[in-house]
Design goal:
The chain has 1 helix and 11 strands, in the order E-H-E-E-E-E-E-E-E-E-E-E. With 168 residues, it is mostly beta strands. Strands 2-5-6-7-8-9-10-11 form an 8-stranded antiparallel β-barrel. Strands 1-3-4 form a 3-stranded mixed beta sheet, with no helix packed on it. This is Lipocalin-like protein. It holds the Pfam family Lipocalin_4. It comes from Jejuia pallidilutea.
């Protein structure tokens, strides 16, 4: 029986991420994201074990389960909101976002944390890039490729559209 591998990592995805995916060569349309979305599933893909990851310099990956994301395509702004639980603090963070063509016929969803004037946060100069593996008008799946202590694994986030409403 294999022992459980416990990994604690801070997941910072820099703009030079070279993740591969199975997404099609069709360029994603910003209008596909318009509205309010919920992260319905988070899973880890890699060696057998137990993974724990800090996402987007904000909170533990478990806190992003059932988080709400709002995307406004006409000015590429939005936010994510984490719910209060016994292990997670409630928080709302504004973002600016876009799509990035990776050069390998795939696309990434990328974003930066911003203030209420949509200026990047001074202490958070990095951005985050997630490989799009699926994007429809009602579902999105993204994959973050990372390593910890030389072992590669992916964090897969599954989003489900809950509304066409866009309230910041």
């Amino acid at each position: 029986m294999r022992s459980i591998l416990s990994i604690l990592c801070i997941l910072v995805i820099f703009s030079c991420s070279g993740a591969k995916s199975t997404t099609t060569a069709n360029k994603p349309n910003k209008r596909n994201l318009k509205g309010t979305w919920e992260v319905t599933n988070i899973r880890f893909v890699g060696e057998e074990g137990l993974y724990k990851a800090m996402l987007f310099d904000s909170a533990d990956s478990a806190c992003f389960k059932n988080s709400e994301w709002v995307f406004i395509p006409n000015n590429a702004t939005g936010k994510f909101t984490l719910n209060q639980t016994s292990n997670c603090k409630a928080m709302t963070q504004r973002i600016i976002w876009s799509f990035f063509e990776s050069g390998d016929s795939t696309y990434d969803f990328q974003f930066k944390l911003v203030d209420e004037k949509n200026k990047p946060l001074a202490d958070k100069k990095t951005g985050y890039r997630l490989k799009i593996t699926e994007l429809t008008n009602s579902e999105m799946e993204t994959r973050l490729k990372t390593t910890y202590q030389g072992q590669a694994f992916d964090v897969v986030l599954k989003f489900q559209k809950t509304s066409d409403d866009i309230n910041l």
